[in-house]
Write a structure and sequence with these properties.
Layout lengths: L5 E4 L2 E5 L6 E5 L10 H7 L4 E5 L13 H15 L4 E6 L1 H12 L4 E7 L19 H9 L10 H11 L2 H16 L13 E6 L7 H10 L4 E5 L6 H4 L1 H15 L1
Parallel strand pairs: 3-4, 3-5, 5-6, 6-7, 7-8
Antiparallel strand pairs: 1-2, 2-4
Helix pairs in contact: 1-9, 2-3, 4-5
Length: 254
């Protein structure tokens, strides 16, 4: 179980599977949770030190909260852990942060993998104030993340619903989403020089397939793979296909 690898040190809560191995740093999305990466953690926990920090979206005061603040928090965590060069992977907002982090720290990043990344275009729940108390609305929006709505378990919907019904957390979500929309990366993506993997769901409605195509066009030497019958969170919906692509990519960067 991934909870076996959960650690708390001061202000940091994170998963770390195999200290001393090459680091694979995973960055979650706006409504993301550690469980979103369970498939990756289980597949790579022995060969890599898979690390998943909980991003301080709800602990940074929302008036100070933006993507730059979150990138700084990632840098502080990496410094705290004394990680050397590492691989970075991000989903949705986590992909956006992975790009900004890589642009600021090119000497630390061995490779970058993006799936359903924001940074060019996204249509998400977090950009407007969702109606409180409307469980069916939240359920429908959460299900729309996936090609197969059954992937949106009651536990997952309940997590999103609890966030939406917490005023402070909702303000943090909105602040982060608005910062992401303002922080368009189109003119900066040519600054990524490390090996880059793009994995996209063919049926992603939040960052549709044309977004993956645009990332490939703008990032030098990026490789792009589409997964059929798959939505915005490919690592959750099609874990075997996703992990196979990621494993091939990581092996090639050694």
């Amino acid at each position: 179980m991934i909870s076996d690898y959960l650690k708390e040190e001061g202000k940091y809560t994170y998963i770390e599977t195999n200290e001393g191995k090459e680091v694979l740093l995973l960055l979650h999305g706006l409504f993301g949770a550690l469980s979103n990466f369970e498939g990756i953690i289980e597949r790579f926990k022995d060969d890599y030190n898979v690390v998943v920090p909980i991003l301080p979206i709800f602990s940074i005061p929302f008036k100070e909260l933006n993507l730059d603040a979150l990138v700084s928090a990632i840098e502080e965590f990496v410094t705290h852990k004394s990680y050397d060069r590492h691989h970075v992977l991000g989903n949705s907002l986590g992909g956006h942060l992975a790009i900004l982090y890589t642009l600021k720290n090119p000497d630390k990043v061995s490779s970058i993998s993006l799936t359903g990344s924001s940074g060019l275009f996204e249509d998400s729940l977090g950009s407007t104030f969702p109606p409180r108390g409307n469980y069916e609305f939240v359920k429908t929006k959460t299900e729309s993340t996936f090609y197969d709505p059954k992937i949106a378990t009651k536990e997952l919907v309940d997590e999103v619903y609890d966030i939406v019904n917490d005023r402070d957390k909702t303000l943090s979500i909105i602040a982060t989403a608005r910062s992401a929309i303002k922080n368009n990366l189109e003119d900066r993506l040519d600054g990524i020089k490390c090996p880059t993997l793009l994995i996209w769901g063919q049926d992603d409605t939040i960052t549709p397939p044309f977004v993956g195509d645009k990332f490939k066009e703008l990032i030098p030497h990026a490789q792009l793979h589409f997964i059929d019958k798959c939505g915005h969170a490919a690592m959750m919906e099609k874990p075997n296909e996703f992990n196979s692509l990621l494993e091939t990519f990581l092996n090639a960067t050694i």
